[in-house]
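tokens incoming
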């Protein structure tokens, strides 16, 4: 599933929510970017080198998430492992 995520799209959405949360105005946290008077979104007004940096960070994040194995843990945490159960009769 992570392989299907576009790094630029992830960076754009992350940028949107970062700005929405930083503004301390809950009306902007809608999940979509609101264009300004000229029709440009905050992502489009961001400097190209900063956008490239965010996309690169998103790409590395996706790569790490897709290659990092899930933490090993018991699949059935409520059952004793084989040979560990106390059988009292």
């Amino acid at each position: 599933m992570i392989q299907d995520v576009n790094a630029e799209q992830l960076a754009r959405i992350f940028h949107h929510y970062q700005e929405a949360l930083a503004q301390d105005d809950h009306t902007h946290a809608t999940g979509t970017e609101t264009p300004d008077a000229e029709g440009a979104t905050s992502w489009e007004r961001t400097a190209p080198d900063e956008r490239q940096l965010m996309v690169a960070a998103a790409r590395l994040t996706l790569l790490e998430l897709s290659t990092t194995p899930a933490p090993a843990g018991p699949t059935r945490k409520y059952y004793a492992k084989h040979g560990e159960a106390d059988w009292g009769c």
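note: Residues 72 and 81 are 15 Å apart (CA to CA).
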